[in-house]
Predict the structure.
Amino acid sequence: MSRDRVFVSRQLPPAALDRLAQHCDLEVWQDFLPPDYAVLREKTESAQGLLSLLTDRIDAPLLDAASQLKVVSNMAVGYDNIDVAAASQRGIPVGNTPEVLNETTADFAFALLMSVARRIPEGKKYISDGKWRTWHPTVLAGQDIYGATLGIIGLGRIGRAVAQRARGFDMRLLVNTLEPESEVQALGAEKVSLEALLQASDFVSLHVPLTAATHHLIGKRELALMKPTAILINTARGSVVEPAALAAALREKSILAAGLDVTEPEPIPLDDPLLQLDNCLVVPHIASASVATRAKMAEMAVDNVIAGLRGERLPTCVNPEIY
Ligand code: GLV
């Protein structure tokens, strides 16, 4: 019997790839940059499995061309790069890598929050610009984190992990979520409307998936509701925030600052207005990037491919309705 063929759209930690290679014939994309759409489509045409990353667009035409495909396994918790409805219509299971990255991503959301609040990147630049001539009472004074109010939008697994960290800083927690009130109260938080959260929070941290309902959830109107001293943190997806509205709010100082791990588009162009602003810290989508977590994500993605090739239920499947 011929072995299944799997296309892996980037180099992964070697242990995961070695394990996958025991189950199928692998083609691993070797470039640092992702295959472009036409190449991905061509590579997937004759494959039984696809191990993708969040940079790969997997849409209905690609799935139609891939007539032998038994599984799509995305090495990410988010899967907005995949037309899951189209995969379901074709009976193709789609896997993701939830849970293993919750704590790492929540650590990073907090790191971003603290860096922006306490102006750490500005401090580094202050020295390299040759400006540190003395201690001064007002230089680089930032915002207190301890005891401040944190608004969490979206109480999924990562939002909860951020809430746990915030409790250690004695923060008041406001949460906007579809989860029941009792779930929110169990975290020592208050469930509030989006408007109330934006008006009352010193920090607003986004933890919703990108869907039609959350696309540009934070735009001009929402930013105008925030305090002039408020800081926005986005480790979710760039398109949850309307970028032009955010740049205007930061430029006009209608909010104080922002910390962004994710942008629209990615990568952010070097002439993007957000990169010109001292009160905006942008980093290149690295919230889950610890060595250990990325290795676990790769192992989970491999587990999903192996199960899919065998016709078994994926351990972490985003469209279980196909079964
Ligand atoms: C990263 O953004 C992920 O979705 O895993």
Observations:
- The chain has a mean pLDDT of 98.
- Residues 54, 76-78, 101, 288 surround glyoxylic acid (CB under 6 Å).
